[in-house]
Structures
1.
Amino acid sequence: MVDTVLNTLTFETLALALFGLVPLLILASRRPEVVLALGLPALLFSGQLKAFIPISTSAVCAVFPLVAIAGGMLKGYRFRFGRIEKAFILLTVLMYVSLWYSHSPVYGTEKVVLVVGLSLPLVLAASYTLVTFEAMKRVLNIISATLAIYIAASAVAKLSGAEAVVGDRFAAIQGPTMAARYLGLGAVVCLCWWCPRETVWKAGGFALGAGAIPLVFLTGTRTAIAALAGVVPAVQWVREKEFFRSLFRRGGRTYLLLIVVFVASLFGPLLLSHALPQGLAEGRFSSWGSFFNPGELRYPTSHVLDTVVAWDAFCDSPVAGFGAGGYKGAMEDHVGRLVHGGDPRHPTYPHNVFLEFLTEQGLPGLLLFCYMMYHALRILLDVRRRLPRLTEPSERMAVITVSAFFIYGFLVAQTAVDIPRQHILWWGLGLLVGLRRIWGERARTVRASAGAKYLGKAAAEPGEYSRCPPLQQA
């Protein structure tokens, strides 16, 4: 793995690092959370500057969380990693160890390099640098502005006829699959972060969010569409404690919802067949079967085949798994031939983050990831409990936006790319643990101020406070 990293270092790379890292480090020494947030525009737009940047997009993106951590250290922040961060570190170590017996070591090495250099630092940097709600707001401002620009640029490309097309699918800036995920994320973030504000922000957020949804359909990427459909009730559940209970208590609302779902499922394919290009509508939206794409077992693109191969690999090696990247070898063993032209570096994955950990790291990897998601759910439950007590509107918007960000990323991860390229999931998880860090810092500040107040009164009137219990028991 070290050789893989060293082989990418060139004179141009070192020169760029020298002249690029210095201003970033200066900025990070003052605002480390800003440097962290700049990693998202680097991810979305650095590919357009590839001719001028001598390193890969992944390497560019990896710089920002690492520099943010360095800036936090310069500011004297303390490391307060919780259970999620510690479990992620253990999971990364497990992935590295599994390279020793991987069935596809070339692809597995690249996966581990990306996790070590980008995914893990992203979560750790968010937990380390997001210590106040002001820092969280700065991050969300940069993220929402980046996604707004991405939506606007995609819309302009479509309206001007300059868009890229893959088959009949709208490819936007990054290709149809990645474009759909970030257009959907842009809709979620703009609607949650901008719409509750003043009139101008509300109009802009609604226009961007509503405008992104048709573009998602034009990409033909069903993952983002399903995630958008799932994030709406999930966010309502976070906002309102009694949302589902009140939904079923009111019979009229329940019946209306069922009627809307029935009508949408019945006439949705017909409407899409007229609104979308013919090949796109017939191939992806003409029926429920084409939408969920079960496929046939002899095709590597079949989602049924993904599940079958993952389950067979788990049965063959339930404890150790097939190693990092080993799903690729399991697929080739199952179909009896090389996939993707035999390219050892081409990503091959089961399109589900749980199945991927189960196949490649066995039960230990799956349990560690489930442990992380369990504690993420506990943070969401804590959000539901604290949300009614937040009096500052901007803090409520930030909490709801972060929750929606994570939920959308989690839903996308069930049918999308491989582990190190689940950028939305890792961004959402990092922001979520950042919320936990912010509340922890607030609690420590309150305890410290209460203790100082108590000790000050005790010093001023020693007779009255001489029999008071110790501070930790008060």
2.
Amino acid sequence: MGDAANMQHSVVIHPLLEGVGGSETVCLATLKALYQNNHEVELLSSNISKSLLETHWADVFEHVSISRLRALHPRPFDTYLRYLLMWIEIRRRVDTKPDFVLLTQELLPGLSKFRDSTKVLYVHFPRFHGLEDRGARFVSRGYLLPISRLIESQLNRIDQVICNSEFTKSAVLRQWGNYGISEPSVVYPPTLWSFNSSLQWDERKDQVLCVGRLVPFKRHELMKELAIQHPNIAFVSLGSYVKGHDAYARDLLNESPPNFTVRLGVSQAELARNYESSKLYVHLANEEHFGIAITEAMSAGCVVLAHDSGGPKEYLPRELLWTDIEDLKRKLQILLADRKTWTFWHQRCKEISQDYTFDSFSNKLMKILHGPLN
């Protein structure tokens, strides 16, 4: 920490700090980058999840002041109430004039309060416009249209937009370009967790891992099909239960092959053990925005396979991308049977993961905050 007289005051707003996914990773990294660079940091958030507090990054919260925020989970027909509550909470809780306001989860109402602050929005994907939203019923889409327009009108108050991938940046410009936003920057999320990546072919289980929320977008159901083809290989899906998708979770658990397992709400320690002991990690979502689980798996020494779309195309070699289920099956078959091929890509994946460090994230964030506009 530097001289208190020269410290800048930053407010980070992240309504729901639950789980250990991409947005939570960005929030933690942002908090640490700010306080390490002589910022007095205030976090506005709901209760911090146990899964975050049990990680080695929990000490981040010792360096920031926390204002508790009442926040609702994003459910379609609670949307208006949820944003009204956010507006009330932001205007009630934050009564200072910070130098910076950083939104690390989503665009929120109430930004007119921070007229003299530099406002930064980190976009994981434009809300209301993602693949997860396309399946909404017509009535739901019509219901959400007014609030989506109201929230997006806040964009003219944002000074800097940061995206988690070039794929997301393209979506931001396509969906929000007419709001006069500045040219977005791309800052990839870092991998924060320390994994043992040294385990080799003989030391790892014959196991294929998939990590993500149990929602249709993540396509965990494909693990069943892969498990049937490889009855002597363990297929494991680790994820979190999401209200509103309980039917999908039930279908996933029903009539599963004996070598397919689903585990919910695992600890960070159990997640690390599975990353470190699995031979392969498969990412099944189409148009994934970035894919933090992919970079985590690579840093733990897993060989990864991801769909040839979205953010993963920006950092994975063509050989590790699959186009359809038959292509995935072919590549999976080779990597499960050929030790030499697996060992080559095991080393290559570890090398790729080194590009997604906290230091890289922090340096890029600070250049944006303290660039020409500031």
3.
Amino acid sequence: MSRWISRKPDYHADITVAIPHFVTRSCTLLATGYAKLLQDSGNTIPTKNGLDISSFAPIMTDLAIAAITLDSACVFRIAGEGIRQRFAHKLVGTDYYNLVDPARRSSAIEAMDMIVRTPCAFRVELLQQYENGEERRAEACVFPLRSDEPNIDGFALFANSEIDPPRSPAAMHPILSEFQVVRRDLIDIGFGLDEGFTDLVPRHHASLL
């Protein structure tokens, strides 16, 4: 029996409806800031080159930007210190899809491509498993940025922040060995949603949702 099971995401009609559902400070502030970017850009997708990353200074440790090439790659351009510590990897220049379980790779590509093609945003709850045996829940959110670069179809602006406090001493940084999406909420940012999208989530966890 496969360890994975299909699960449809939940939906939010717009970003203001979605914001109260965020549970971490970093994701809440990124969603709030992106809502302002949308408003300031006349409800068009903001460009990556026009982004003032310093406006997100309070959450930079949990922030990342990745360049998306449709159907093939999602390469980190920026990765905050908190994210780098969890992966024990410099991340910049790394393809996000190479960090995903091979069984979920096609689902991950579809999800990231969706933010460019539709475009839309999403919030996910993750189960993060560490080499020391710890499991912690985390929250991530992803928002699209338009690309002005040739051969880059769009950019993903995202935050990733842990919900559960670490059990290890603060001086220790256990290495993340696996992460699994257990819930996804699609967020309409004014261009509709792909209601045909389906996630792959861990079978044992899906039965508890």
